[in-house]
Amino acid sequence: MPFSLWLSLAAVCAMGAMSPGPSLALVLRHTLGGGRLPGVAAALSHALGVGLYALLTVWGLGALIARQPLLFQFITWVGAAYLAWLGIKALRAGRVATWQASGVITSRAQAAREGMLVALGNPKLILFFVALLSQFVSPEMSLAAKTLIVATAMVIDGGWYVLVAMALSHSSVLPWLQARAHWINRLTGVLLLGLALRVVLGPLG
């Protein structure tokens, strides 16, 4: 995979991870309720769930491109519509909601379990990855390239939420994030709308 193409993948994965949502609320809750280690446990287990969905999507897309190109095209267009909807939703979002996470007494085991369940219990991740990864997967793609795609999604997701858990040890970080949540939403919305348009135009080269 060319480095420029990988950078595009990494950028979209990063914005997807940074977008306020139930995953961020989960990490905030366990960090505030149990400290740094439960927050990190939730972040890492969530990344494993994301990696599993990315793995299933990459291998499924590869088979679909080779055997059912018309069905693959239809699915990518549905994915593009979903990305556009997410983008519009992000642009219209405010600065509160998912950023208001109160702390509860928690443990590393509980945090790890809930982190995995939040990821695997969100079937919309499959739609997101189908639309996203359709731009990067090709029938002739090597095993190493597919592994790189999955690892990128998993490492960026885990890295961001671990960073959030670590940063929350400083009391000034959460108010800073809350004050700028609307800008993250807007940037995410623009990126998702741009990706939806790119899906309609055709795969990246």
UniProtKB/TrEMBL annotation:
InterPro entries noted in UniProt: LeuE-type (IPR001123)
The record gives the membrane topology as: Multi-pass membrane protein
* Database matches in Pfam families: LysE
**Keyword Transcription appears in the UniProt entry:** no
Alphabetical UniProt keywords: Cell membrane, Membrane, Transmembrane, Transmembrane helix
- What residue ranges are annotated as transmembrane? 41-63, 70-88, 116-136, 143-163, 183-201
Q: Where in the cell is it found?
A: Cell membrane
**Native organism:** Litchfieldella rifensis
Please verify whether the record's keywords include Metal-binding: no
- Its recorded name reads LysE family translocator
Q: Which domain of life is it from?
A: Bacteria
